[in-house]
Amino acid sequence: MTTPDLHSNNTPQVINLTQLKPEVKEKAQQIATTVDIRDSQSVLQYGIGAQSNISAFSESILSQVKTKDAGYIGETLVHLGQSVKELKVDKLGAGGFLASLPFVGRLVHSVKRFITRYEKVSTQIDRIVEELEKARMQLLKDIAMLDTLYEKNHEYLSELDVYIAAGQFKINQVYEQELPEIEKAVAASADPADAQRLHDYKQMVHRFEKKLHDLKLSRTISIQTAPQIRLIQNNDQLLVEKIQSSILNTIPLWKNQVVIAISIFRQNKALELQKNMTKTTNDLLTKNSEMLKQGSIETARENERGLVEIETLKKVNNDLIATIEETLTIQKEGKTKRAQAEGELLKIENDLKAKLNEVKSA
Predict the structure, then answer these.
(1) Nearest CA-CA partner of 168 in 341, 18, 23, 313
(2) Mind listing the pLDDT tens digit for each residue in 247-258?
(3) Which residues lie closer than 8 Å to 37 by C-beta, 6 or more apart?
(4) What span, in angstroms and rounded, lies between the C-alpha atoms of 47 and 162?
(5) 160 CB neighbour count, 10 Å cutoff
(6) From the record, what ranges are coiled-coil (predicted)?
(7) Neighbours of 81 (CB within 10 A)
(8) What residue ranges do the domains of the chain occupy?
(9) pLDDT tier, 105 (very low <50, low <70, confident <90, very high otherwise)
(10) In the chain, what percentage of residues exceed pLDDT 70?
(11) Residues 6 or more apart in contact with residue 206 via CB below 8 angstroms
(12) Could you tell me the maximum CA-CA distance found in the chain, to the nearest angstrom?
């Protein structure tokens, strides 16, 4: 078995013994006097109380983190934003079947639909705000609890520093006084048992140094825990600020904007109604005036006309003359045709008589 080289103490020291406060230095030196390197139990139990506090403390913080689900707060805030967006103020009274309704009815119906939707969303938001308020109170309690944990961690770190300093004092004493004296006595002795006792002593020194190293690791954990606590605390504070901003600023502002939107919508619709009424009145007056003008002109024109127009009489007279002339022409032609027909009839009669005489004489 090889024996560790313990003739020099070259291990970097995490605590500068020369810069210790007097009261801390005195306490560390007092603890160092109680350490018996030769006693294995003394080595094993050294600083175990401070280590146990750090271990229990770390478990406590871990349990706090596990039991506190901050994720749902973010989800609740997201749900809040979605609920606010769900009520589309800019779509108030827009489109849909409402466009086909009478104007006044569309105004009333659209506003009622919007207000109904607002009341539904507002109820959801009120429930969300209640949850956020509860979460805010819990976060404030957590922030206060983290302050306590931070102070405890500082206490445990200070306690560890004392044990580490005491261990360094003891190690310095071992290398400077105890080990050289034992080595000198063993060198002057021929008894193999003395050599074994030196070897055992060096092993215990080595174990004590390992124990001291474990305390330094615990010290590092404690140092790292401090900013972790502050980080968690800062995140909680940011959530509290976000919740307060949502409850005190976002929600009231949103409600005010809804009221303003409804008022502006009603104003615009009333203005549009007034414009439509004015336009309808103007259109009616214009049409009436045009009808009056047209009727008056037609009446005057008809009133100035005679019972029978001269043009009508001229046409009737011309048609009458043409009728007489045409009738006379037709009668004349008829007389001529009748005369011709009588001649033809006479000829036919004579031809028939002649033919009959021929037959008779034959």
Answers:
(1) 18
(2) 788 777 777 766
(3) 43, 170, 174, 178, 201, 204, 205, 208
(4) 9
(5) 24
(6) 118-149
(7) 13
(8) 17-276, 306-362
(9) very low
(10) 73
(11) 4, 6
(12) 214
The pLDDT assigned to 206 comes to 92
Contacts of 36-40 with C-beta under 8 Å, sequence gap 24+, read 37/170, 37/174, 37/178, 37/201, 37/204, 37/205, 37/208, 38/200, 38/201, 38/204, 40/204, 40/207
Q: Which residues contact 92 (CB under 8 A, 6 or more apart)?
A: 110, 111, 114, 261, 262, 265
Q: What value, to the nearest 5°, has the Cα angle with vertex 171 and ends 195 and 191? A: 10
Query: Which amino acid would we find at residue 6?
Result: L
pLDDT of the residue at 248? 82
Phi, psi (rounded to 5 degrees) for 70: -80, -10
Give 295-317 pLDDT, tens digit per residue.
778 777 766 665 567 787 788 88
CA distances from 10 to 6, 136, 201 (A): 9, 53, 19
With tokens 């009056």, the residue in question is 292
Evaluate if pTM is beyond 0.70: no
Burial class (CB in 10 A: 0-12, 13-18, 19+), 297: exposed
Q: Where are the alpha helices (DSSP H) in the chain?
A: 22-34, 40-45, 48-67, 71-86, 103-173, 179-187, 192-245, 251-304, 310-361
Which amino acid appears at position 97 of this protein? Answer: F
Tokens of 183: 């080595």
Buried b (16+ CB within 10 A) or exposed e, 113-143: ebeeebeebbebbeebbeebeebbeebeebb
pLDDT at 116 over 80: no
By C-alpha distance, which of 209, 151, 177, 195 is closest to 4? Answer: 209
